[in-house]
């Protein structure tokens, strides 16, 4: 039986002022899986991330990385296994140039300069930022800073990548680019992705499983179609359905439109609506010769 890439087992955490941030949380991500933590602000997702990466120590429970207790993993080994991308790239970028920043981790581990440069090039290519290599950090846009901060983590060749609100502050094009980059890392390189967010619209396209958190507890976990069919739970967690699902849910609930299931993406919605339209009203597009 293959061990999870990372798991939290009955984890509890309370801050010094008394806030109970995590209450018997069980969480896992299998190797190569794309898992999302979906929660509104203050629900414990950032605290859980810090516990998973070892920045906070749980008062109860434990975290296991590839079958080994997190408390027994040397920091040097941990940083090459699990990468953390913070919500605000300013908290992560510190060097003068992009190249220097991305090279910092491998150099700090003592790699030869040829290996350092190879890792820098590959990491920047992974996040579509090769052209930024010699750019000054303070000349980058916010979206570019996000991608460069991720490149700095990827240069350590982690098998697990944990991201806190990676699309926060990005415009729609930037959100789509970020999610496609993460999907590529996951599908093509097999990197386990754990993403914390309250943005529900892109998750059905990318996440294998979703955990819904509220007040430090896991309300439910499962694939997108199981999560978003729980309308009351989504509402109680101060979240919402994806916009396309909201529209079709209202069509079903208020107008009696017999749409099968609850489509979560535009592609699914198109298929369901086409089922309701008579064939003679559908304009068939000519096939393009191969």
TrEMBL record:
Membrane topology: Peripheral membrane protein
Superkingdom as given in the UniProt entry: Bacteria
Keywords for this protein: ATP-binding, Cell membrane, Membrane, Nucleotide-binding, Translocase, Transport
MF annotations from Gene Ontology: ATP binding; ATP hydrolysis activity; ATPase-coupled transmembrane transporter activity
Keyword ATP-binding appears in the UniProt entry: yes
Main location: membrane
UniProt domain ABC transporter: residue ranges: 6-240
GO CC annotations on file: ATP-binding cassette (ABC) transporter complex
One Pfam family matching this protein: ABC_tran
Subcellular compartments: Cell membrane
Annotated SUPFAM superfamilies: P-loop containing nucleoside triphosphate hydrolases
Protein function: Part of an ABC transporter complex. Responsible for energy coupling to the transport system.
Protein name as it appears in the record: ABC transporter ATP-binding protein
Annotated organism of origin: Desulfomonile tiedjei (strain ATCC 49306 / DSM 6799 / DCB-1)
